[in-house]
Design brief:
four-stranded antiparallel β-sheet, 3 helices
Length: 104
């Protein structure tokens, strides 16, 4: 098991929409994440900066950020592109964060 963390950027004024869309996450996407070993996945919002902080546990060697070649993830990216900062391929701008401390 590994833990990964990264940050993304929410466009101002879209926190309720972001939360709404994730509350209704597509079952196919959730299945893909679970089948890929992603679990215990949380995303937090810093309302002062609109930074989204994500942390997840992964069984295996792929995090959610490594699934971009799948059709369902590409569709999710397109669905979320209007409310997040994105790259030209609609993937969210995502910055990996190294773990400096962990207490079990």
């Amino acid at each position: 098991m590994i833990r990964t963390a990264f940050k993304m950027f929410l466009k101002p004024g879209f926190e309720a929409e972001y939360e709404k869309r994730h509350a209704a996450i597509w079952p196919q996407l959730k299945t893909l994440l679970k089948d890929s070993g992603v679990y215990d996945y949380s995303i937090f919002w810093d309302k002062e900066t609109n930074i989204l902080f994500a942390v997840q546990k992964v069984n295996g060697d792929q995090s959610s950020q490594d699934l971009g070649s799948t059709e369902i993830v590409q569709k999710w990216w397109a669905y979320m592109a209007d409310i997040m900062e994105t790259n030209p391929d609609n993937s969210p701008v995502s910055i990996p964060l190294p773990e400096l401390f962990y207490m079990e």
